[in-house]
């Protein structure tokens, strides 16, 4: 963290108090210097307190994204699986908290260590230190459970509860921390903060985790969904795609807005501190606080552009305005800008969002052709758009911003399209390959073993009936009215039914033609 430097020397101050070196002058000089030191200590303490408060507030925002994930997942699945998917989101946070405390944080940031994995701070032993505090642990834990939450959406509506426990613990306790060590720890082999031997003289600029968080969660979800296979009824006998729509667009929109709100802790919060001037100290209006504001703006523009592009793109393809598609497009833009949000101009963020929308739409069409079923489009959204975000950063990173965010190395490579050469692009291509390889080599075999042990997928009967009824004691939306059912004398039971529009044009001569079908 930055400190405030105010120095005072009695020997230097004495001549200014009267010239002659008398005892009284020396005492006065010593007294004034002691007051300066007290002020300096207070300013230093205040700086630490402000930076720590900023990081804690950012951690709270990122953790609030779990509510967004829960609402988004609940709205995107059918009503009969609502309680199941909500419980898995709670599980991601709870199991992730324990395993990240025991192992994950040490593997990620346990310095000093080697370039592959950390080896200190297991169970937060010998913690905190002069460089990291508990607020930093909390912030990094919130990131770890975000990766696990991404994966849960890919395997929704057909996965055994024990499989969630196993994969979530493994992902947050080992797989994700190793990746974050590579790119975010000062000892990581591809970190831009290494003291020497930077990858391509640059390191990887994945500021808030398009690769570290989103690609990891998306690729893990990809293998889970691929090994499990599609949901029953997702593809017809002739291979035709059948939409198994989520039961509540309202929850999808609510979850999307919660995620949008939390992203302002995810991206701007990744600066970790706010009281850091970039120019000469002494009242400059420009500093890290300015970069934080710019990062919030680039995040907003990328998401907004992706949402609008998806809106009109899907309108041309499908012929209607779909709020769920727009929400996914918005999140795809956010996932893409997360890597370069701090080092690109606002106009470049618009480019990022525009392309991210195309990536998402294209990958969704490819998934349908390959009969790949991801209820929340998590692999396409987080994996595909995250990979684009990594490439985008290597193309559009601006030299000035790169040197401000990653100081101390003049001449560091920056974006190819901004005149910085291709070294950063080379480093980022390696990042994409190693993340895909690492997650595939760890999570793929895990899901495969779970399948062989019959611990991965539920039975066809349970899947058809819905996991809320067969695994969690009843449907999420069934309740008992206190007034009771007059016909039976017992409690009156209410349930929700989904009404799909009938796309057939009713016969004008038949006034009784149905306008909807109950499912």
Automatic annotation (TrEMBL):
Q: How does it sit in the membrane?
A: Multi-pass membrane protein
Q: Where in the cell is it found?
A: Cell membrane; Membrane
- Pfam families the UniProt entry points to: Ammonium_transp
Q: Which organism is it from?
A: Stephania japonica
UniProt lineage: Eukaryota, Viridiplantae, Streptophyta, Embryophyta, Tracheophyta
A GO cellular component term found in this entry reads: plasma membrane
User: Which protein family is named in the record?
Assistant: Belongs to the ammonia transporter channel (TC 1.A.11.2) family.
Keywords from the named record: Ammonia transport, Membrane, Transmembrane, Transmembrane helix, Transport
Annotated GO molecular function terms are: ammonium channel activity
Q: What is this protein called?
A: Ammonium transporter
Q: Which residues lie within the region annotated Disordered?
A: 483-519
Please give the biological process terms from Gene Ontology that the record holds: ammonium homeostasis
């Amino acid at each position: 963290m930055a400190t405030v430097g105010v120095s005072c020397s009695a020997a230097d101050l004495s001549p200014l108090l009267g010239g002659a070196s008398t005892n009284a002058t020396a005492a006065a000089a010593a007294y004034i210097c002691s007051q300066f030191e007290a002020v300096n200590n207070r300013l230093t303490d205040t700086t630490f307190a402000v930076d720590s408060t900023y990081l804690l507030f950012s951690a709270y925002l990122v953790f609030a994204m779990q509510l967004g994930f829960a609402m988004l997942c609940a709205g995107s699945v059918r009503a009969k699986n609502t309680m199941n998917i909500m419980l898995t989101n709670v599980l991601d946070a709870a199991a992730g908290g324990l395993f990240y405390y025991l192992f994950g944080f040490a593997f990620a940031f346990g310095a000093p260590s080697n370039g592959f994995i950390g080896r200190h701070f297991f169970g937060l032993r010998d913690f905190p230190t002069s460089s990291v505090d508990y607020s930093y642990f909390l912030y990094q834990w919130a990131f770890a459970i975000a990766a696990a939450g991404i994966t849960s959406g890919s395997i929704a509506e057909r996965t055994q509860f024990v499989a969630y426990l196993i994969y979530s613990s493994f992902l947050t306790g080992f797989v994700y921390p190793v990746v974050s060590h590579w790119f975010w720890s000062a000892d990581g082999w591809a970190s831009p903060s290494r003291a020497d031997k930077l990858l391509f003289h640059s390191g990887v600029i994945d500021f808030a985790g398009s690769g570290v968080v989103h690609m990891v969660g998306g690729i893990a979800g990809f293998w889970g969904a691929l090994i499990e296979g599609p949901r029953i009824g997702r593809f017809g006998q002739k291979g035709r795609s059948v939409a198994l729509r989520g039961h509540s667009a309202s929850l999808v929109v609510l979850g999307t807005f919660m995620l949008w709100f939390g992203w302002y802790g995810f991206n701007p919060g990744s600066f970790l501190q706010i009281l850091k001037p970039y120019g000469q100290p002494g009242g400059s209006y420009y500093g890290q606080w300015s970069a934080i504001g710019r990062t919030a703006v680039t995040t907003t523009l990328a998401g907004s552009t992706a949402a609008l592009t998806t809106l009109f793109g899907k309108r041309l393809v499908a012929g209607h305005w779909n709020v769920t598609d727009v929400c996914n497009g918005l999140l795809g833009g956010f996932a893409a800008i997360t890597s370069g949000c701090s080092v690109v101009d606002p106009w470049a963020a618009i480019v990022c969002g525009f392309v991210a929308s195309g990536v998402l739409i294209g990958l969704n069409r490819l998934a349908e052709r390959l009969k790949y079923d991801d209820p929340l489009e998590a692999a396409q959204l987080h994996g595909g758009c995250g990979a684009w975000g990594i490439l985008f950063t290597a193309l559009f990173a601006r030299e000035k911003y790169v040197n401000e965010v990653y100081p101390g190395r003049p001449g560091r490579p920056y974006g190819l399209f901004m005149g910085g050469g291709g070294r950063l692009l080379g480093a980022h291509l390696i990042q994409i390959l190693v993340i895909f390889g690492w997650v595939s080599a760890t999570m793929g075999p895990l899901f495969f073993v779970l399948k062989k042990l019959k611990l991965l997928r539920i039975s066809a009967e349970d899947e058809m009936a819905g996991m809320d009824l067969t695994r969690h004691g009843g449907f999420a939306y069934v309740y008992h009215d206190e007034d009771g059912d007059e016909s039976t004398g017992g409690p009156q039971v209410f349930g929700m039914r989904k009404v799909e529009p009938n796309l057939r044009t009713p016969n004008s001569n038949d006034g009784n033609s149905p306008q909807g079908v109950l499912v």
